[in-house]
Amino acid sequence: MDDFERQLMQAMSRTDPPGAFEAKVLARVAREADGRSGLWRWFSRPVTLRWASVALALVMVATGVTWQRERERERGEQALAKLELALKITSEKLQKIDREIPK
To answer: What is the pTM of this model?
Structure first.
């Protein structure tokens, strides 16, 4: 066995963790669990995340539908204004022609 293989075997050999390892891990888990607020714990539940995603999607769809309807209403108002202008111009031209034609 060459030096590289020996180093590899030594690095890969099984070793027991230090004596205080379990206590350190449990203390860190407890510390991180205490750091989360009740609201964060509520949102981190998978079912809650699903419902929050559904609620967000519904809000986005409702906002999109409302925005689309508002755009259509604005386009309708613009078309109505153009139609009224066209009718006014047509009426003025017809009145001018009617005055110019001898009776």
So the answer is: 0.46
